[in-house]
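Q: What would this chain look like folded?
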Amino acid sequence: MKKIFSVIVCWLLATTLFSQDIKGDWYGTIKLPGGTLRLVLHISQTDTGYSSTLDSPDQLVNGILVALTRFSEQQLYLDLPTIGASYRAQWKANGFTGSFSQGGKDLPLHLSRQPARKPQEPIPPFPYPTEEVHFRNVAAGIELAGTLSLPAASGKFPVAVMITGSGPQNRDEELLGHKPFLVIADYLTRNGIAVLRFDDRGVGKSTGHFASATSADFASDVKAAVAFLRTRKEIDRKKIGLIGHSEGGMIAPMVAADEKDIRFTVLLAGPGIPGSQLLLLQQKLIMEAADTPASIVKVQQERNAKYIDMVVHADHLDSLRPVLALQMAKDFTANAKATDRPDSSVLKMTEKQAADFATPWMQYFLRYNPAPTLEKVTSAVLAVNGSKDLQVPAKPNLDGIKTALEKGGNKNFTTKEYPGLNHLFQTCKTGLPAEYAAIEQTFSPEVLADIAKWIQEKTKQ
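A: My prediction, written as structure tokens:
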């Protein structure tokens, strides 16, 4: 889904500092043959000098220790032995300019106080009011925080609740240098549609525990958001809708099926086939797009199908994890004798893999079939996908959504596949997740315009 189920962590990283007061956060971008890589350096002052850690947001890697942080005579030096790298830089008027060295290669790296911003990201002040809001999910006993943006005109407005994809996401659905929900909210609000976007439970300013929650729990958070909007005088209660991306496109129908006054539902790369099928298909397509040999793809598909089946049919995940870890370890060392005990280092690795895979969220997702829920949705539905989406492939999922809606008697829906767009609705080359961060575009302008026009049409009366 939006967050890839297996994230491949790359190697390249870097760091920074500053002249007089170098404490705090520093931002930079390295240009690579296949795109760019953002870096964030966090510097703290110690009794003897400085210490620092490094984040690589595009690789979802945080807290890399910098063994040595030295700043003297406007020169900065960083030593990162865990990744075999170093950084030397000279303080300039607007930050540090220097060279990041790794693997015998020197790459230019400039560090400044300002994070990199993608071209589509709107800059305040905005030509419309925004408000920090808080609302409670009473049943879960948590408070959710978000941003409500309202069109500049007066009156009561249609409103869209944004629903993030899988993984802990803030209200902007921020990932890999992009803030797609901020871009979408800005566009819709400028076109007369109010938008509520909020931090996932346990993320940002929202309370609660993310790791123990399932899609059903997140659906209850969305219902709390809808209930909150019904109390707002600026909102037309008859024109409340949902926009869900990826897993959010699975959650939106869950809410729309229960809340019969939902006016419209937009599914951005939402699943239309069972989770167990989708995960296998996703993994297969990503491996094939990355030119993985067919023999390896076949073996991995067989192994993944086995792991999925174990999780789907497990009665108790706690007791499953050691069994799953042992199976993964045996598969990893496939040439060993059946009676051999896997190496302790291998088993330690697979224990972590099993713990990450055998979770309540994953079990719920793998067991979930969106079709019965889609059959109960009576609101207007717009389901869109990109033709190069490798995570929620367009044809099988749009076909599944269409079939389910028709079976339920819903005739007020539109499905559309956009050529050349990936899972984030970016114009792309391969559709591989590795491209996401390198692409400057955050969200297709064509899809933005189509969503706004469709919502306007469905809420004009």
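The chain has three domains: 24-112, 130-273+369-458, 276-366.
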